[in-house]
Design a protein that fits this description.
The protein is α+β, with helices and mostly antiparallel strands. It is 55% helix and 18% strand. It is built from three helices and two strands. It has helices at residues 14-29, 45-59, 63-73, and strands at residues 3-9, 33-39. Strands 1-2 form a two-stranded parallel ribbon. Helix 1 (14-29) links the parallel strand 1 and strand 2. The chain is globular, with a radius of gyration of 12 Å.
């Protein structure tokens, strides 16, 4: 991409969850946009577990699917 957006996020963060559709829209509008997602699990043990699961999903090629599903469910427990 000609522009790189790095997003640090925590699955337990409501602001991160609310920005997710905006990032999806930006990706749809600009095919040359590259997004780099970085887990920043600072809101407790549930955040840490969600980040570990996210990295595992990424290793299996399922990051985006997992990312969308977990944010859709709300705060991880």
């Amino acid at each position: 991409g000609d522009v790189v957006l790095v997003e640090f996020f925590d699955y337990a963060c409501g602001f991160c969850r609310s920005s997710n559709p905006v990032v999806d829209r930006l990706l749809a509008e600009d095919p040359r946009l590259k997004v780099v997602w970085r887990e920043l699990p600072v809101l407790g043990p549930d955040s840490e577990q969600a980040a570990i699961a996210s990295l595992d999903a990424a290793e299996k090629g399922q990051f985006h699917r997992f990312h969308e599903a977990l944010f859709a469910k709300g705060r991880p427990t």
